């Protein structure tokens, strides 16, 4: 027994060591630096307590980035999961070439966020605008990325195009685990397809919804690469009588703060992002777990 325990410890030791050195230690250092005036260049570090955190909640750019990140996340949670669920129903039906469609829907997820951003920037800024000019459709003649009131929706649409195929696979796996006899029995009893989906499929897929909502939430909150290449935070707008970037999500706001040699302030923002993400994720998972039990 002791020998088995020693073997387990030896096998776990490299992973535990890597986790501590890569995750725990940098996190603790980050907490410390968030309470200093460190600029990333000077070797002198002065402890300032919670001053960095207090200043964040009076900074219009941080407050705006936080609010639009929450809005962007909510939009993504709805769009990605609705589209993914519909796609999963299509590829698990008796439609011809369903395996081809399944692969096709998943392909956009394989495109990196940097490349994806540049591709869709060209599509939205050039092709769609030119199409609007040719067809004389006024709403298309100005890029959706250049308007503060549409840029977040455009980003969410691009994110849905990329991410829906991945979430679809989770729903597909869940649907395939449900005994087909249940759907057949309901059909024999006279239940139409919509009734079978809402009263059989969705309740029995509660676990898949928990996982998918969690992944969509965390991915949206941490969005950076596509934000950088698609809009670079633009266009400009005003918030609390101050100029801000209309599509600068929180991760990009932290990046821009750090590259301006305000490392301590950027680390304080990262800590706030971490706390908010953990808080919201725990609520989401606990609520969905309760619904799993009820269903």
Describe the protein.
- With 295 residues, this protein is mostly helical.
- It has a single domain (59-294), classed as Orthogonal Bundle (MetI-like fold).
- The protein has helices at residues 2-33, 51-56, 60-91, 98-106, 113-135, 151-176, 180-188, 193-204, 206-221, 225-230, 250-259, 263-294, and strands spanning 236-239, 242-245.
Instruction: Say which CATH homologous superfamily is assigned.
Output: MetI-like
CATH architecture: Orthogonal Bundle
**Global outline:** globular
Beta content comes to under 5%
Mean pLDDT: 89
What does the radius of gyration come to?
23 Å
Uncertain runs are none
Q: Please give the CATH class.
A: Mainly Alpha
Secondary-structure-derived class: mainly alpha
**N→C terminal distance:** 42 Å
The residue fraction in helices comes out at over 70%
Neighbour order of strands in the largest sheet: 1-2
Find the CATH topology: MetI-like fold
**Total number of distinct structural domains:** 1
Short summary:
By secondary structure, the chain is mainly α.
List keywords for this structure.
295 residues, mainly alpha, two-stranded antiparallel sheet, MetI-like fold
SSE arrangement:
Elements: H1 2-33, H2 51-56, H3 60-91, H4 98-106, H5 113-135, H6 151-176, H7 180-188, H8 193-204, H9 206-221, H10 225-230, E1 236-239, E2 242-245, H11 250-259, H12 263-294
Helix pairs in contact: 3-4, 3-6, 3-9, 4-6, 6-9, 7-8, 9-12, 11-12
């Amino acid at each position: 027994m002791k020998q088995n325990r020693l073997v387990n410890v030896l096998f776990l030791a490299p992973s535990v060591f890597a986790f501590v050195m890569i995750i725990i230690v940098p996190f603790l250092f980050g907490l410390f630096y968030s309470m200093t005036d460190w600029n990333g260049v000077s070797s002198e570090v002065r402890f300032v307590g919670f001053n960095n955190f207090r200043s964040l909640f009076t900074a219009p750019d941080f407050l705006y980035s936080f609010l639009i990140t929450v809005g962007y996340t909510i939009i993504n949670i709805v769009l990605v999961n609705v589209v993914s669920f519909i796609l999963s129903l299509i590829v698990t039906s008796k439609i011809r070439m369903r395996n081809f469609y399944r692969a096709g829907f998943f392909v956009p997820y394989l495109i990196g966020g940097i490349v994806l951003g540049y591709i869709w920037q060209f599509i939205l800024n050039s092709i769609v605008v030119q199409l609007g000019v040719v067809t004389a459709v006024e709403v298309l003649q100005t890029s959706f990325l250049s308007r503060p009131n549409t840029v977040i929706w455009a980003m969410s649409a691009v994110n849905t195009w990329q991410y829906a195929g991945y979430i679809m696979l989770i729903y597909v796996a869940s649907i395939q685990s449900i005994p087909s006899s249940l759907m057949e029995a309901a059909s024999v009893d006279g239940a139409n397809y919509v009734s079978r989906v809402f009263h059989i499929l969705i309740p029995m897929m509660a676990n898949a919804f928990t996982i998918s909502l969690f992944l969509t939430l965390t991915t949206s909150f941490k969005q950076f690469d596509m934000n950088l290449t698609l809009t670079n935070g633009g266009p400009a707008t005003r918030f609390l009588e101050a100029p801000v970037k209309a599509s600068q999500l929180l991760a990009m706001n932290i990046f821009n703060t750090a590259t301006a040699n305000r490392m301590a302030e950027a680390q304080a923002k990262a800590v706030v992002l971490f706390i908010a993400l953990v808080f919201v994720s725990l609520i989401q998972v606990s609520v969905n777990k309760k619904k799993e039990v009820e269903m």
